[in-house]
Design a protein that fits this description.
With 98 residues, the chain is of the alpha+beta class. It has a single domain, classed as 2-Layer Sandwich (Potassium Channel Kv1.1, Chain A). 46% of the residues lie in helices and 13% in strands. The chain contains five helices and three strands. The protein has a three-stranded mixed beta sheet with strand order 2-1-3. Strand 1 and strand 2 form a beta hairpin. Helix 4 packs across helix 5. The longest helix has 17 residues. It is globular and about 40 Å long. The chain starts with 5 loop residues before the first strand and ends with a helix. The relative contact order is 0.20. Belongs to the SKP1 family. Keywords: Elongation factor, Nucleus, Protein biosynthesis. Pathway: Protein modification; protein ubiquitination. GO terms for molecular function: protein-macromolecule adaptor activity; translation elongation factor activity. This is Elongin-C.
Amino acid sequence: MKKEETVKLISAEGFEFVIDKKAAMVSQTIRNMLTSPGSFAETQHGEVTFPEISTIILEKICQYFYWSLQFASGKETEFHIEPELSLELMMAANYLHT
């Protein structure tokens, strides 16, 4: 996979998730960050840092991006969310417009 086809998402603790750009574009916020005109660091380097999103939450969000791409066609499947992650995950999803 070419570097242009991937995006690096960095959690508050500095853990890096390298995912398909197509998966990252599920998030309207990330899409805006990566496609905005101008010379923003996110656009130039293909990486986005989330200082307020923990590693465990960002990992679950990345899983959701791939799940969303796979099942966007309408096939009904359930995306499992651990109850203890619910509040923090909802706040991150709201920020990411996911």
